[in-house]
Design goal:
Elements: H1 2-56, H2 60-65, H3 77-86, H4 90-117, H5 123-132, H6 142-151, H7 159-168, H8 170-182, H9 186-194, H10 199-210, H11 212-227, H12 231-236, H13 244-249, H14 261-298
């Protein structure tokens, strides 16, 4: 009996090792096309960035002759002209984005906590009403929104952008943060209630710290979206009070510069405008990835 068992066990081991050996090449053969596809996709995404940086350092005739060639003699003065044309818009743009993003974070956190940890009438109905806002395209509401901004007398003011930005960022934030706060273990809130803590204490000491990576991820998404917005700022703000995107697109070349160089100076302005977002993404990337994985698990 023992000898028969000894014969069977090596046979099974040989089969399993053979099976594993057969599976490994198949997995490797699948990973190679996947990595190749990801590499090609990444390169295609970086082609516009390469085009922008290379032509920001060139003149108009060089760009027309060879758009993707490296500059022979970099023209750093393009960045000087670009800053002179759009530098005035950075303080206002950063202020509008900062106030809007902080306001969205505070209000969506409070709303998400209310939906997750309190009881009130028609709670689920109101939640689905907010969720339904995600299904409405923004361009459908653009004309009614503009009319409302005009009626409120907010044309030409920063609040004409801040209030719509605050309202537009509520739906996604409330939906995501409600799910995140609901997934926090109930024992933490029960222990806090036994110690006499109220909702304000639990919100500040439990909900906010545990939802911080997700809040940072949502804030980064809002910063990228609001910083590069062009449609609404072009309707609300004009001239010296415009944001970066409007200032760059409305750029007129200096009198001493050839007409063809205005395109290159605009590209240099886009490079300068991209730097704050690039630095912010690099600094907060680990929080962004953590928040996205946290969202994927909890939703």
């Amino acid at each position: 009996m023992t000898s028969q068992t000894a014969r069977v066990v090596p046979a099974l081991g040989a089969r399993s090792s053979t099976t594993v050996g057969r599976r490994r090449p198949s997995l490797r053969s699948l990973s190679l096309p996947a990595n190749l596809a990801l590499t090609v996709t990444a390169l295609l995404c970086y082609v516009p960035i390469y085009f922008m940086i290379v032509n920001a350092l060139r003149g108009g005739p060089e760009t027309q002759a060879a758009p993707f060639a490296l500059p022979e003699a970099p023209r750093w003065e393009n960045f000087v002209f670009a800053w002179q044309a759009s530098g005035f818009a950075y303080p206002k743009t950063l202020m509008i984005v900062a106030v809007s993003v902080v306001g969205i974070a505070i209000t969506t956190l409070a709303s998400g906590y209310a939906f997750a940890r309190t009881r009130f009438r028609e709670k689920e109905l109101w939640f689905f009403v907010i969720f339904g806002l995600l299904l409405i395209p923004a361009f459908i509401t653009l004309i009614p929104l503009y009319v409302q901004i005009v009626d409120l007398g907010l044309i030409g003011t920063s609040w004409g952008l801040i209030f719509p930005y605050l309202a537009g960022g509520q739906a996604l934030g409330v939906v995501v943060l409600r799910s995140a706060i609901e997934s926090i273990p109930e024992e933490l809130f029960e222990a806090a209630k036994l110690d006499g803590a109220g909702h304000l204490w639990m919100f500040a000491r439990i909900a906010i710290p545990l939802a911080r990576p997700l809040v940072i991820a949502l804030a980064l998404l809002n910063v990228v979206g609001l910083y590069g917005d062009y449609v609404l700022p072009s309707l609300v703000l004009q001239g010296a009070d415009s944001t970066i995107s409007v200032a760059i697109t409305g750029f007129t070349p200096p009198a001493l510069s050839p007409n063809l160089d205005s395109f290159n100076i605009q590209l240099a302005a886009f490079c300068l405008a991209s730097l704050p977002i690039a630095v912010l993404v690099l600094v907060l990337m680990r929080y962004f990835v953590s928040g996205l994985s946290q969202t994927a698990v909890k939703l």
